[in-house]
Amino acid sequence: MADFVRVARITDIPSDSARVFTVRGRRLALCHVDGTIYAVDDTCTHDGGPLGEGRLDNHAIECPRHGARFDVRTGAVVQMPAVFPIRTYPTRIENGEIAVDLGDGAV
Ligand code: FES
């Protein structure tokens, strides 16, 4: 079941950047790419690096710790050393407000 929670305004996240928000105790990196917001876990699956502090290059976010890259659309690893994907969450934008689905719809 969907469980959308309002997190931020789209104006809080400049284009081509990520910002970290804590939502119900979970650290999420919200990534703004071409007017679309993607929500992923902030924690790198390699060794716990802070993904939200990494560089966002198109749809790939790069972990600042050892350089693993993940596709923010799917969570898939696109560059090692990470081997496991990150979790992604559905998002929606209404009246400029970003909401993230933390419920069963999460991938
Ligand atoms: S902790 Fe992210 S690449 Fe190592």
Strand order of the largest sheet: 2-3-4-9
How big a fraction of the residues is strand? over 45%
Fraction of residues in H or I helices:
under 10%
The ligands found in this model are: FE2/S2 (inorganic) cluster
Q: How does the helix and strand content classify structurally?
A: mainly beta
User: What form results from the Cα inertia axes?
Assistant: globular
- Rg is 13 Å
Averaged pLDDT: 94
Biggest β-sheet strands, sense, barrel: 4 strands, antiparallel
How many β-strand stretches?
A: 11
N-to-C CA distance: 12 Å
**H/E series, N to C?**
EEEEEEEEEEE
Number of helical segments? Answer: 0
Uncertain residue segments: none
Secondary structure: elements and pairs:
Layout: E1 4-9, E2 17-23, E3 26-33, E4 36-41, E5 56-57, E6 60-62, E7 69-71, E8 77-79, E9 88-89, E10 91-94, E11 97-101
Antiparallel strand pairs: 1-11, 2-3, 3-4, 4-9, 5-6, 6-7, 7-8, 10-11
The protein binds FE2/S2 (inorganic) cluster (FES).
Structure report:
There is one protein chain. The model has no long low-confidence stretch (mean pLDDT 94). Helix content is 0%, strand content 46%. The protein is mainly β and 107 residues long. Strand 6 and strand 7 (69-71) form a beta hairpin. The strands form 3 sheets. Strands 2-3-4-9 form a 4-stranded antiparallel β-sheet, with no helix packed on it. A 4-stranded antiparallel β-sheet has the order 5-6-7-8, with no helix packed on it. It has a 3-stranded antiparallel β-sheet with strand order 1-11-10, with no helix packed on it. The protein has strands spanning 4-9, 17-23, 26-33, 36-41, 56-57, 60-62, 69-71, 77-79, 88-89, 91-94, 97-101. The chain starts with a strand and ends in a 6-residue tail after the last strand. FE2/S2 (inorganic) cluster (FES) binds at residues 44, 46-49, 63, 65-68, 81-82.
